[in-house]
Amino acid sequence: xxxxxxxxxxxxxxxxxxxxxxxxxxxxxxxxxxxxxxxxxxxxxxxxxxxxxxxxxxxxxxxxxxxxxxxxxxxxxxxxxxxxxxxxxxxxxxxxxxxxxxxxxxxxxxxxxxxxxxxxxxxxxxxxxxxxxxxxxxxxxxxxxxxxxxxxxxxxxxxxxxxxxxxxxxxxxxxxxxxxxxxxxxxxxxxxxxxxxxxxxxxxxxxxxxxxxxxxxxxxxxxxxxxxxxxxxxxxxxxxxxxxxxxxxxxxxxxxxxxxxxxxxxxxxxxxxxxxxxxxxxxxxxxxxxxxxxxxxxxxxxxxxxxxxxxxxxxxxxxxxxxxxxxxxxxxxxxxxxxxxxxxxxxxxxxxxxxxxxxxxxxxxxxxxxxxxxxxxxxxxxxxxxxxxxxxxxxxxxxxxxxxxxxxxxxxxxxxxxxxxxxxxxxxxxxxxxxxxxxxxxxxxx
Length: 446
Prior knowledge:
Helices cover about 35% and strands about 20% of the residues. The chain has helices spanning about 5-15, 25-50, 55-65, 70-90, 90-100, 125-130, 145-160, 180, 195-210, 225-240, 270-275, 300-310, 360-365; strands at about 120, 135-140, 165-170, 210-215, 245-250, 280-285, 315, 330-335, 340, 345, 355-360, 370-380, 390-395, 415-420, 420-430, 435-445.
């Protein structure tokens, strides 16, 4: 099991003891979190020894269901671990419920963009204009909310036409030396890349002709040391060899903040600018998003959605074309509309029209053996490929338990996969069985 640098970030970012005013209480809470993170890592290592993704997920789900309610530190930490695996199996609504970072108003937030002078523009159009002539553009994401990856994936063709030729991806392991030759990611290519939309980001970039570069730092240390190492990796792996490179960077959360206080040091983007002399265009995608609990939404988000009711990601721009940003250090804040659900799945899985929904029946594919994971694999890729999409069927027993936990698809046994036009094979893992290809599928072009 690799050491996971995001654990340190989770501990730094998440978690003063609620209501605590005493330093010793906060210190004890932090020690409990560290112990919870170590326990979570051990559970995830146990899960990794299972041969199938469904088997791994079931280990994580069982650990979550057995956690004592009073073990607050473990429940806070492990809920994020569980949410990652929920995204892997395509259970996006429950991933957001498991772990969600509230977005309250903060001192220094920009005034509401509903004030005069700002107009709404689809993000794809506004960003295509803003990236013109830039050498580096940084997009961020919330790791367990793949909604925040959808715009980045949809923008890749336009970015390639604009002349960007590298995609630097935080999650990738630098020892996957055959990624470009293979043309698709595997679960061994990186951590978050096992989520299908992240897999689509890497796969799409390769098909478009981007050089895909790993820049994560896996050395233990302070958050500031990690930020500096990530920036140095971008310099050494791209700009030392190709000073005129034009680079798209995908990163988590505030790594892309260009200036301002950051975890007692400087962010990756700030180090990058200092090392290269290149000011990146910084696109913030994690703040203006819907939360499972609406009071956790930023007040400006709530007001904007009530006033505008958009159906695509968008930004606000002024008369000169400058984008509105909630906080200093970013060039634009992207607003993502609340999810629309279709057959218990969010329609943002269409990736702004790149993919279309395709009906699948768990009853016909799974032989009434539950839980059952159905994966769509591209026909021209190997069995080790990250699936184009996945759904987990897990209907409740009859009669259902009185105190049932979250169930994928709310227990439904039919739904839709979201797929690009092309040929696929459907692979099914039912119960504790071995994954098997059950049928082929052709998605026609419109």
